[in-house]
Amino acid sequence: MTGKINIAVLLLMVASAARGQVASHASTVVPKQQARAAQPGDKPVARVNGVLLTDRDLLREEYAIFPYARQHNGAVPQEMEPQIRQGALQMIIFEELVYQEAERQKITIPTARLQNAETEFRKQFSTPEDYQSFLQAECHGSKRLLREKIQRSLLIDTLLKSEVDAKSGVSLAELRAYYIKNGARFEYPEAFAIQTISVLPPPNQNPTPEQQKEMRKRADDALRQAKVTGNYEEFGVLAEKISDDDYRVMMGDHRAVARTKLAPQVVEALLPLRAGQITGVIQVEQAYTIVRLNQHILAGKAKFEDVKDPLRKELKQKKTEQLRAALDKKLRQNAKIETL
User: Of 20, 67, 111, 291, which has the fewest CB atoms closer than 10 Å, so is most exposed?
Assistant: First the structure.
């Protein structure tokens, strides 16, 4: 969960939220942790230190976890529904605990930041009428209630920044230590970056001698055309037009394939080639293929400088998840939580 906040998903049904954002703090509760009665149509799903969370809160969180449901009339695939519901329930409980902790610590939101968040929220509506419609449906027309909800979301965001984001950084020394300790992870095998044009037999059947002869004729014709291509793009366009294998939709590009995963006869044909050269027709079982070598990659180990940035992102995400889990455990220790 990052520090960036998308207020629109706060209440809403206005825009989809990425799971990594502090965006779905949607529990509609009054300030100072006073429990409230469920609004008409709201069904209680949990109570956290006396604060009631409803199925309205749960639904918004489910949409944050599985935004595609909006495209299917709110439906979540049946086999995924229990898992998504449980994840959403745990999330709204966690966010309520974070909010209560922010209030306990007497965290405040500067007026300018709150006003800016309100302004940004309103910008997500295409017309004033849409905004008023939303305000009426979700906040009973009350701008004060909307402001309270936005403030709540900002309080959650602020506490998470201090307790999670600020502590999840990964230093250069940590990165280098991880790289050295896990060196085998950054090793890569010998591989060939290739494109192919293939002539395949009819699906689910062995070709007759006549069909095999016709396939070979097609392969020879494909080779003649391939030899006059001058670069990656031209070979790829030809592959799109005449190849039978599934890689034709990607210009015949297999990217880097480990030597051990290629047929021996393909490896044998590739070894003498330089980048940009094309093999002859290679028969692999009953199929024929023509291969363009884009790069012969010798076995080696990725340099630290090349993996530093993605590794930092990965380790930061891992540390973030650990800090969030620790915070969740800490906040639950003395909390009274009921699922209804």
Answer: 111
Answer whether 167's CB lies under 8 Å from 323's CB.
yes
Distance (Å, rounded) from C-alpha 103 to C-alpha 100? 5
User: CA triplet 1, 332, 165: central angle to 5 degrees?
Assistant: 25
What amino acid is encoded at 109 in this protein? I
What confidence tens digit (pLDDT) does each residue in 254-297 have? 999 999 999 999 999 999 999 999 999 999 999 999 999 999 99
CATH assignment at residue 42: 1.10.4030.10
> What is the total count of domains within the chain?
2
Residue 316 included in any domain: no
Query: Over the stretch 61-114, which tens digit does the pLDDT of each residue have?
Result: 888 888 776 665 656 677 888 898 999 999 999 999 999 999 999 999 999 999
Is 313 a member of any domain?
A: no
The contacts of residue 47 (CB under 8 Å, 6+ apart) are 35, 53, 336, 337, 338, 340
Nearest to 252 by CA among 178, 198, 205, 302: 198
Q: Which domain holds residue 198?
A: 190-298
